[in-house]
C-alpha cells in the first residue's frame, strides 16, 4: 500500500462516530477514501442525502494533517496499521457493531488465530485471583494443542497477571492499550510490554500516537478486549468496575463469559458472583470448564476422566496431613502447624474448597470432605 492511500485511510478512520456500517455506506457512495477527502462538503451532502459535521472541509483537513504525522510515526517504528477492509483485520472484532476502523499493532501476532481468551479483573488483585489466573493459563497451555492467545489490558492487578502468566506458559499474549503506541501506561509495565513483543505477542490499540492517556479511553478500549475473544474470563471484580463493563460488552457481542466465584464476604468477588447470579457469566473454576463449554478439543492426557487422587502441591499435602490427623482445625492453628502466613494460607484453602478437597464449617474451622 502506498503512503497516500494509507494516509487517507488513517484520516478517514480517525473521524469520530464512524462505525464499520456507516463507513461502508459512505465509501460505497464516494468510491474511495481519497474521494471522500477530495469532494466538497456540498458534494458529500448531496451524495449521502444528509449533512454531517464530518463532511466539513475543516474537519477533513485536520484529519488529513494528523494522518500524515501518524504515517511517519508508524513507518519509523515498524508499526502495523490494519484497516477494517483489510483481509487480515480480526474477523471476531469485525462482528462487533462498534469495531474501530483502524487498529495499530506493535509485534507479530495472528489476529485471526483459532483460540483467543481474554482475561480481565480488578486492579486490586488478591492472591486468590492471581493464583487462579496462573493455573488457568498454565492449564490452557497444556490442554490445547494449538496455542491459546491471551488478551488483556496491561493494567495493574489481574491484567498484568494474565500477561505474565502467558509469558511464563509460553503463550502469545496481546496487550490492548488505551493510548497510542508512543508510550506505555503504566510505565512500570514497560518491561513486560517488551517481553510480550519479543515472545510473539502484540501491543494493540485503536488510538493514534497523538492520543493522550485519558480515563475515558480505558472503558472504550474494553470493547476490543471483549470483541477479540472467543471467551472472556473475569477473575476478580468488586461490585463496580471496568471488568464488569467488559463482561457485559462481551455478552452483548455473543461471546462466552465466565467468572470465578468467591465467598460472599470477599469484596473483590462481589462482581463475579453478581455476573454468575444474573446469568451473564458461567461459573469457572478450571481451564477444563472453559474448554468443555466452548467445545475445544483438549489434549488426550488432559481430556481423560479426572483422577480420584488429584495432584497436590507439598503445601496442600501438609494441609491434608494435618486435617487427617486432627479432624477439624482452625486457620491460626493450621498456619502454625505448616508454618505458612495466614493470607497465603487463606488463598490456598479457598482454592482447595473449590476443588472439593476440604470444606469450611461453622466456627471458622476446616476439615476434609
The total strand number stands at 12
Rounded Rg: 24 Å
Model regions low in confidence, pLDDT < 50 over at least 5 residues: 301-307
List the strand order in the largest sheet. 1-2-6-5-4-3-7-8-9
Supply the number of helical segments. 17
Strand content: 5-15%
How would you spell out the order of helices and strands? HHHHHEHEEHEHEHEHEHEHEHHHEHHEE
Q: Helix share of residues?
A: 40-55%
Silhouette: elongated
The structure class reads alpha/beta
Multimeric organization: single chain
The profile of the biggest β sheet is: 9 strands, mixed
Q: Could you give the distance between the termini?
A: 64 Å
Q: Kindly report the average pLDDT value.
A: 92
Task: Explain the layout of strands and helices.
Layout: H1 3-13, H2 20-30, H3 33-38, H4 41-48, H5 57-76, E1 80-83, H6 91-94, E2 102-107, E3 116-120, H7 127-143, E4 149-152, H8 158-169, E5 173-176, H9 190-198, E6 202-205, H10 215-227, E7 231-234, H11 242-252, E8 256-259, H12 270-277, E9 282-283, H13 287-294, H14 300-303, H15 314-326, E10 329-330, H16 331-338, H17 342-354, E11 358-361, E12 365-368
Parallel strand pairs: 3-4, 3-7, 4-5, 5-6, 7-8, 8-9
Antiparallel strand pairs: 1-2, 2-6, 10-12, 11-12
Helix pairs in contact: 1-5, 7-8, 7-17, 10-11
Keywords:
369 residues; alpha/beta; 9-stranded mixed beta sheet; 3-stranded antiparallel beta sheet
Report on this model:
The strands form two sheets. A nine-stranded mixed β-sheet has the order 1-2-6-5-4-3-7-8-9, with helices on both faces. The protein has a three-stranded antiparallel β-sheet with strand order 10-12-11. Helix content is 48%, strand content 13%. The N and C termini lie far apart (64 Å). The protein is of the alpha/beta class. It is built from 17 helices and twelve strands. The chain is elongated, with a radius of gyration of 24 Å. Helix 7 (127-143) crosses helix 17 and helix 10 (215-227) runs parallel beside helix 11 (242-252).
